[in-house]
Design a protein that fits this description.
The chain is an alpha/beta fold. The protein folds into three domains: 3-276, HUPs (Rossmann fold, 3-Layer(aba) Sandwich); 280-420, Isoleucyl-tRNA Synthetase, Domain 1 (Orthogonal Bundle), CATH 1.10.730; 426-473, no CATH class. The chain has 17 helices and 15 strands. It has helices spanning 46-64, 91-99, 103-120, 136-148, 177-183, 224-236, 250-265, 283-287, 297-302, 307-316, 327-344, 357-371, 376-388, 393-407, 417-420, 426-441, 445-457, and strands at residues 10-13, 18-21, 30-35, 68-75, 128-131, 152-154, 158-161, 197-202, 220-222, 240-246, 270-276, 279-281, 323-325, 460-465, 468-473. It has a five-stranded parallel beta sheet with strand order 5-4-3-10-11, with helices on both faces. A hairpin with a 3-residue loop joins strand 6 and strand 7. Helix 2 crosses helix 3 (103-120), helix 13 (376-388) runs antiparallel to helix 14 and helix 16 runs antiparallel to helix 17. The protein is elongated and about 85 Å long. It starts with 9 loop residues before the first strand and ends with a strand. Residues 1-5 and 284-292 have low confidence and may be disordered. Bound molecules: zinc ion.
Length: 474
């Protein structure tokens, strides 16, 4: 019996606002999965990285359930204006101004920085990374198709999609289009309707842009939305099985992707739409250790955290819920990872077959959690309970490796050096030791043992000497 027959995958589909059973059409051999990638004009914020972690949990789960996945992620290395309304500055050119590099150098530099973050977080690389600047002909081709079908009009600054010609435009994001139109009359420029959007922008006649290409409409550059439709359909065909992105993309970017793709092909663009919710920055993270509001993975690493601690933090909350980021939460993840390693490190190299009824039951429970719209927090709980159970070490070891195919916490290796460092400050450790001394003086040995164990979990070893308690950190 194949694994995929044992549990049915269920995912929340933004298109229907409901949990649906995921299957592949009979003639499709691999999951056609497209995820919106980064605009490479700056480092990725840890909030952006949470989205890629969610997509990694999804990709790994599909593979765990024996699906092959054809996973495509784009790199936006051209254009992408700072506002969704096709106005404002070009993010790439802004990045070039800020750094004194050319736009091409900016794109290359931040693409490499992004790849490094992905690698550090143990995110499986997609089957294909594709760059917008490598797909200009495909984008022009798609705009021409829409033009030939009468879905476009030209203004003095570009070719626009005529959103009123697509009946279902408002459906995906449940937009109240009439009210939007009433509210936005002033800053629409030459657009006919508020939800119309640029497919191709003309270069200004009086200045040379850093990135521009010839087209049937003269020199210019593609709109942001057309890039994703063109690349997704070029590499995966007119219909995708899963399209992912952040919830911020629902209203405009994904709505526009659907409009232009479905008008061009007459087919459903994506069968499942899955969206990761935001990371919310708590007050403490703004005030204490962060450098302003812009928290990158590198900032976390510079402060002594390990990438797996951030990965574990992302696993503790469901991808459709806000994750409140704070350094306290990250410290808890640090403790969580250390506690996991205390149990998994001694199991390394001991894996046997997973064959007993109780081992199979743990595996079944883990699968059920992940098949339930990626319930990663529950899956982690099952891992922890399994490790505390009386299962023999061989099967425990095998289950750790099995679960880690999805969790990706690198539990096949011993605890990283960085994770060994206690998150407790010296004063906190000493306060706990004083409490323990007090408990001992009161002959409350249950309490004094509890404190000793709590410190041991933090990697703090105590030694009672005639001069008092001394402690050392692992
Ligand atoms: Zn996109």
């Amino acid at each position: 019996m194949s694994k995929s027959k044992q549990a049915i995958l269920r995912f929340y589909n933004t298109a229907s606002r409901s949990i649906e059973e995921f299957t592949l059409p009979k003639d499709v051999p691999a999951v056609r999965m497209y995820c919106c990638g980064p605009t490479v004009y700056h480092y990725a914020h840890i909030g952006n990285l949470r989205s890629y972690l969610f997509e990694d949990f999804l990709r790994r789960t599909l593979e765990y359930f024996d699906y092959e996945v054809n996973h495509v992620v784009n790199i936006t290395d051209v254009g992408h204006l700072t506002s969704d309304q096709d106005e404002g500055e070009d993010k790439m050119e802004k990045g070039a101004e800020r750094t004194g590099k050319t736009v091409w150098e900016v794109a290359e530099y931040y693409t490499q920085a992004f790849f490094k973050d992905i690698d550090l977080l143990n995110i499986v690389a997609p089957t294909l990374w594709c760059k917008a600047t490598d797909h200009i002909p495909e984008q022009i081709d798609l705009v021409q198709k829409l033009e030939a079908k009468g879905y476009t009009y030209n203004t003095s600054d570009g070719v626009y999609f005529d959103s009123l010609k697509f009946d279902r435009y408002a459906d995906f994001a449940r937009l109240d289009v009439e009210n939007l139109q009433k509210g936005a009359r002033i800053d629409m420029g030459e657009k006919k309707f508020v939800t119309d959007f640029a497919l191709w922008k003309f270069s200004p006649a009086d200045s040379q842009r850093a990135m521009e290409w010839p087209s049937p409409w003269g020199k210019g550059f593609p709109g942001w939305h057309i890039e994703c439709s063109a690349m997704a359909m070029h590499h995966l065909g007119p219909t995708l099985d899963i399209h992912c992105g952040g919830t911020d993309h629902i209203r405009i970017h994904h709505t526009n992707e659907i409009a232009q793709s479905e008008c061009a092909t007459g087919q459903t663009f994506a069968r499942f739409w899955m969206h990761g919710e935001f990371l919310r920055m708590g007050e403490s993270s703004k005030m204490s250790k962060s450098s302003g509001d812009f928290l990158t993975l590198k900032v976390l690493l510079d402060q002594g955290y390990h990438p797996m601690e951030y990965r574990l933090l992302a696993l503790t909350s469901h991808y459709r819920n806000y994750l409140n980021f704070s350094f306290e939460a990250l410290d808890s993840a640090k403790d969580g990872l250390r506690n996991l390693h205390r149990r998994t490190d001694p199991l390394i190299g001991k894996a046997t077959a997973i064959s007993s009824d109780s081992a199979l039951k743990w595996q079944h429970d883990f699968k059920s959690a992940m098949s339930d719209d990626l319930n990663t927090a529950k899956a982690l709980g099952i891992l922890n309970s399994m490790l505390r159970s009386d299962l023999d070490d061989g099967e425990k070891s095998a289950l750790v490796l099995d679960f880690d195919k999805v969790l990706g916490l690198q539990l096949d290796k011993t605890m990283p050096e960085k994770a060994k460092q206690s998150s407790l400050a010296t004063e906190e450790i000493e306060a706990l030791i004083a409490q323990r001394d007090q408990a001992k003086a009161e002959r409350n040995f249950i309490e004094s043992d509890r404190i000793r164990d709590e410190l041991a979990n933090q990697g703090i070893k105590l030694q009672d000497t005639p001069q008092g308690t001394i402690w050392e950190s692992e």
